[in-house]
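Please, structure for the following, as C-alpha coordinates.
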Amino acid sequence: MTKRSVMAMAVVGLLAAGCAQPETEVRPVEAGGGQDAEAEGEAAAGTPTRVDPRKGGFDVGFGEYAVTLEAPAIRPGPVTFVVRNGGAEVHGFEMELEGEDSSGPGSGDEGFKIERPTFGPGETIRVRLDLAPGVYKVECFVANHDDLGMEALLEVRPDAPLVRQAPAAGAADAVAITGFAFQPATLQVPAGTEVTWTNEDPAQHTVTAEDGSFDSGPLDQGGTFSATVNGSVDYVCAIHPEMRGRIEVA
Protein backbone atom coordinates (compact mmCIF):
# COMPACT_ATOMS: atom_id res chain seq x y z
CA MET A 1 0.00 0.00 0.00
CA THR A 2 1.46 3.37 -1.00
CA LYS A 3 1.87 6.36 1.29
CA ARG A 4 -0.69 8.26 -0.79
CA SER A 5 -3.27 5.48 -0.28
CA VAL A 6 -2.74 5.54 3.49
CA MET A 7 -3.31 9.32 3.59
CA ALA A 8 -6.48 9.01 1.50
CA MET A 9 -7.88 6.38 3.87
CA ALA A 10 -7.11 8.61 6.85
CA VAL A 11 -8.99 11.52 5.30
CA VAL A 12 -12.01 9.29 4.57
CA GLY A 13 -11.95 8.07 8.15
CA LEU A 14 -11.97 11.62 9.54
CA LEU A 15 -14.87 12.60 7.29
CA ALA A 16 -16.89 9.56 8.35
CA ALA A 17 -16.26 10.33 12.01
CA GLY A 18 -17.42 13.92 11.50
CA CYS A 19 -20.60 12.76 9.76
CA ALA A 20 -21.38 10.42 12.62
CA GLN A 21 -21.54 13.28 15.14
CA PRO A 22 -25.15 14.05 16.20
CA GLU A 23 -26.56 17.21 14.67
CA THR A 24 -27.32 20.12 16.96
CA GLU A 25 -31.03 20.91 16.91
CA VAL A 26 -31.72 24.51 15.94
CA ARG A 27 -35.11 25.87 17.01
CA PRO A 28 -36.47 29.28 16.10
CA VAL A 29 -36.71 31.68 18.99
CA GLU A 30 -39.15 34.58 18.88
CA ALA A 31 -38.60 37.86 20.67
CA GLY A 32 -40.44 38.23 23.92
CA GLY A 33 -40.10 34.57 24.95
CA GLY A 34 -41.22 31.45 23.14
CA GLN A 35 -44.53 29.70 23.58
CA ASP A 36 -42.96 26.76 25.42
CA ALA A 37 -41.26 28.96 28.00
CA GLU A 38 -44.42 30.89 28.79
CA ALA A 39 -46.57 27.76 28.91
CA GLU A 40 -44.11 25.95 31.17
CA GLY A 41 -43.94 28.93 33.50
CA GLU A 42 -47.70 29.13 33.84
CA ALA A 43 -48.04 25.37 34.24
CA ALA A 44 -45.51 25.46 37.07
CA ALA A 45 -47.48 28.25 38.71
CA GLY A 46 -50.70 26.24 38.42
CA THR A 47 -52.40 28.78 36.15
CA PRO A 48 -54.16 28.03 32.85
CA THR A 49 -51.63 27.74 30.04
CA ARG A 50 -51.40 30.13 27.13
CA VAL A 51 -51.37 28.94 23.54
CA ASP A 52 -50.35 30.45 20.23
CA PRO A 53 -53.63 31.53 18.54
CA ARG A 54 -52.20 30.26 15.23
CA LYS A 55 -52.21 26.70 16.57
CA GLY A 56 -54.90 24.58 14.94
CA GLY A 57 -56.02 27.47 12.74
CA PHE A 58 -56.74 31.13 13.44
CA ASP A 59 -60.51 31.67 13.74
CA VAL A 60 -62.14 34.56 11.86
CA GLY A 61 -65.88 35.26 11.97
CA PHE A 62 -67.80 37.04 9.21
CA GLY A 63 -71.37 38.25 9.66
CA GLU A 64 -73.62 41.27 9.34
CA TYR A 65 -71.84 43.53 9.82
CA ALA A 66 -68.61 42.80 11.64
CA VAL A 67 -65.41 40.78 11.44
CA THR A 68 -64.19 38.97 14.56
CA LEU A 69 -60.64 37.75 15.12
CA GLU A 70 -59.53 35.06 17.53
CA ALA A 71 -56.87 37.49 18.78
CA PRO A 72 -55.90 41.07 17.86
CA ALA A 73 -52.24 40.13 17.35
CA ILE A 74 -50.27 37.06 16.29
CA ARG A 75 -46.63 36.20 15.71
CA PRO A 76 -45.05 36.12 12.23
CA GLY A 77 -44.86 32.93 10.20
CA PRO A 78 -47.19 30.31 8.73
CA VAL A 79 -50.84 30.52 9.72
CA THR A 80 -54.12 29.11 8.43
CA PHE A 81 -57.11 31.43 8.67
CA VAL A 82 -60.34 29.53 9.31
CA VAL A 83 -63.00 31.95 8.13
CA ARG A 84 -66.63 31.14 8.96
CA ASN A 85 -69.62 32.95 7.50
CA GLY A 86 -72.04 33.09 10.41
CA GLY A 87 -74.26 35.66 8.71
CA ALA A 88 -77.26 35.53 6.44
CA GLU A 89 -75.58 37.08 3.40
CA VAL A 90 -72.77 36.17 0.99
CA HIS A 91 -69.37 37.55 2.03
CA GLY A 92 -65.85 37.70 0.59
CA PHE A 93 -62.53 37.49 2.40
CA GLU A 94 -59.95 40.18 1.65
CA MET A 95 -56.69 40.93 3.44
CA GLU A 96 -54.11 43.61 2.79
CA LEU A 97 -51.48 45.68 4.53
CA GLU A 98 -53.09 48.56 6.38
CA GLY A 99 -52.91 51.81 4.46
CA GLU A 100 -52.54 50.28 0.99
CA ASP A 101 -56.23 50.09 0.03
CA SER A 102 -55.45 48.79 -3.47
CA SER A 103 -58.37 48.35 -5.85
CA GLY A 104 -57.69 44.92 -7.33
CA PRO A 105 -56.82 41.43 -6.17
CA GLY A 106 -53.23 40.33 -5.68
CA SER A 107 -50.19 42.11 -4.35
CA GLY A 108 -48.22 44.90 -5.94
CA ASP A 109 -44.46 45.28 -6.13
CA GLU A 110 -44.17 46.45 -2.54
CA GLY A 111 -47.50 45.43 -1.05
CA PHE A 112 -49.63 42.52 -0.07
CA LYS A 113 -53.25 41.80 -0.84
CA ILE A 114 -55.30 38.65 -1.28
CA GLU A 115 -58.93 37.90 -2.05
CA ARG A 116 -60.80 34.63 -1.99
CA PRO A 117 -64.03 33.70 -3.79
CA THR A 118 -67.24 34.64 -2.03
CA PHE A 119 -68.75 32.13 0.38
CA GLY A 120 -72.32 31.74 1.58
CA PRO A 121 -74.06 31.57 4.96
CA GLY A 122 -72.78 28.68 7.08
CA GLU A 123 -69.77 28.05 4.84
CA THR A 124 -66.15 28.01 6.02
CA ILE A 125 -63.03 28.69 3.99
CA ARG A 126 -59.37 28.20 4.88
CA VAL A 127 -56.66 30.60 3.80
CA ARG A 128 -53.01 29.55 4.29
CA LEU A 129 -50.49 32.37 4.58
CA ASP A 130 -46.96 33.09 5.75
CA LEU A 131 -47.16 36.54 7.30
CA ALA A 132 -44.35 38.99 7.85
CA PRO A 133 -44.52 41.59 10.64
CA GLY A 134 -46.95 44.41 9.94
CA VAL A 135 -50.53 45.57 10.44
CA TYR A 136 -53.08 43.90 8.16
CA LYS A 137 -56.69 44.78 7.43
CA VAL A 138 -59.14 41.89 7.20
CA GLU A 139 -62.41 42.84 5.56
CA CYS A 140 -65.34 41.78 3.39
CA PHE A 141 -65.05 43.02 -0.19
CA VAL A 142 -68.73 42.44 -1.10
CA ALA A 143 -70.66 45.62 -1.89
CA ASN A 144 -70.22 48.17 0.92
CA HIS A 145 -69.92 45.62 3.72
CA ASP A 146 -66.58 47.05 4.84
CA ASP A 147 -68.13 50.52 5.20
CA LEU A 148 -70.91 48.96 7.28
CA GLY A 149 -68.35 47.64 9.75
CA MET A 150 -66.98 44.42 8.25
CA GLU A 151 -63.30 45.14 8.75
CA ALA A 152 -60.77 44.50 11.51
CA LEU A 153 -57.07 45.10 12.03
CA LEU A 154 -54.63 42.27 12.78
CA GLU A 155 -51.17 43.10 14.08
CA VAL A 156 -48.35 40.66 13.31
CA ARG A 157 -45.30 41.09 15.55
CA PRO A 158 -42.68 38.80 17.13
CA ASP A 159 -43.72 39.62 20.71
CA ALA A 160 -47.48 39.19 20.21
CA PRO A 161 -48.99 37.79 23.41
CA LEU A 162 -50.19 34.23 23.63
CA VAL A 163 -53.85 33.62 24.34
CA ARG A 164 -55.00 32.11 27.61
CA GLN A 165 -56.39 28.67 26.89
CA ALA A 166 -59.97 28.15 27.98
CA PRO A 167 -60.34 25.75 30.91
CA ALA A 168 -61.28 22.19 29.94
CA ALA A 169 -64.54 22.52 31.82
CA GLY A 170 -66.17 25.95 31.70
CA ALA A 171 -69.23 27.13 33.58
CA ALA A 172 -71.88 24.43 33.35
CA ASP A 173 -74.66 26.96 32.81
CA ALA A 174 -73.02 29.47 30.44
CA VAL A 175 -72.83 29.95 26.68
CA ALA A 176 -70.52 32.41 24.94
CA ILE A 177 -71.51 34.12 21.71
CA THR A 178 -68.19 34.56 19.90
CA GLY A 179 -67.00 34.48 16.31
CA PHE A 180 -70.62 34.37 15.07
CA ALA A 181 -71.24 31.09 16.86
CA PHE A 182 -72.66 29.79 20.14
CA GLN A 183 -70.02 28.06 22.25
CA PRO A 184 -70.70 25.40 23.23
CA ALA A 185 -73.18 24.74 20.44
CA THR A 186 -74.89 22.15 22.65
CA LEU A 187 -75.13 22.55 26.41
CA GLN A 188 -76.42 19.78 28.70
CA VAL A 189 -78.01 20.89 31.97
CA PRO A 190 -80.46 19.55 34.58
CA ALA A 191 -84.08 20.72 34.44
CA GLY A 192 -84.66 24.08 36.09
CA THR A 193 -81.18 25.43 35.28
CA GLU A 194 -80.80 29.13 34.57
CA VAL A 195 -78.56 29.42 31.50
CA THR A 196 -76.71 32.67 30.78
CA TRP A 197 -75.53 33.80 27.34
CA THR A 198 -72.86 36.50 26.91
CA ASN A 199 -72.28 38.29 23.61
CA GLU A 200 -68.53 38.70 23.07
CA ASP A 201 -68.86 39.80 19.43
CA PRO A 202 -68.86 43.43 18.22
CA ALA A 203 -72.05 42.67 16.28
CA GLN A 204 -75.49 42.42 17.84
CA HIS A 205 -76.98 38.95 18.35
CA THR A 206 -80.12 37.44 19.81
CA VAL A 207 -80.87 34.23 21.69
CA THR A 208 -84.25 33.17 20.33
CA ALA A 209 -85.89 29.84 21.18
CA GLU A 210 -87.49 28.13 18.21
CA ASP A 211 -90.48 27.12 20.37
CA GLY A 212 -90.98 30.73 21.46
CA SER A 213 -90.17 30.05 25.11
CA PHE A 214 -87.56 32.85 25.32
CA ASP A 215 -86.11 35.68 23.27
CA SER A 216 -83.32 37.97 24.38
CA GLY A 217 -83.86 40.69 21.84
CA PRO A 218 -80.70 42.30 20.37
CA LEU A 219 -77.65 41.97 22.63
CA ASP A 220 -74.81 44.44 22.23
CA GLN A 221 -71.20 43.43 22.86
CA GLY A 222 -70.85 42.52 26.52
CA GLY A 223 -74.59 42.07 26.94
CA THR A 224 -75.99 39.05 28.77
CA PHE A 225 -79.28 37.16 28.79
CA SER A 226 -80.51 34.46 31.13
CA ALA A 227 -83.37 32.00 30.85
CA THR A 228 -84.51 29.04 32.96
CA VAL A 229 -84.96 25.88 30.93
CA ASN A 230 -87.10 22.90 31.92
CA GLY A 231 -86.93 20.99 28.65
CA SER A 232 -84.64 20.59 25.67
CA VAL A 233 -84.83 23.50 23.25
CA ASP A 234 -83.19 24.63 20.00
CA TYR A 235 -82.44 28.30 19.56
CA VAL A 236 -81.00 30.66 16.93
CA CYS A 237 -79.78 34.19 16.48
CA ALA A 238 -82.68 35.96 14.79
CA ILE A 239 -80.24 38.39 13.15
CA HIS A 240 -77.92 35.65 11.87
CA PRO A 241 -80.08 32.52 11.42
CA GLU A 242 -77.08 30.34 10.56
CA MET A 243 -76.07 30.66 14.21
CA ARG A 244 -77.76 27.76 15.96
CA GLY A 245 -77.53 26.26 19.44
CA ARG A 246 -79.27 23.71 21.61
CA ILE A 247 -79.91 23.22 25.31
CA GLU A 248 -80.38 19.57 26.23
CA VAL A 249 -82.12 18.91 29.54
CA ALA A 250 -81.22 15.62 31.18
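The longest strand covers residues 77-85. Residues 3-40, 105-109 have pLDDT under 50 and may be disordered.
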